[in-house]
Amino acid sequence: MKIMKLMSLSVFCLIFFSANLMSKTVEVKMLNKDSNGQPHVFEPAVVFIEKGDSVKFISVDKGHNVASMDKKGSAPAGVKKWKSKISKDHIQKFDIEGIHGIKCKPHMVMGMVGAVVVGNTHNIEAFSKVKLIGKAKKRFPKILATIKSNAPKGKARKTASVETSAAAGDAPSVEASLAQLKNDVDGLKAAVKDIQSKLEKLEAK
Ligand SMILES: [Cu+2]
Question: Burial, 28: exposed, middle or buried (Cβ in 10 Å; 0-12, 13-18, 19+)?
Answer without folding.
Answer: buried
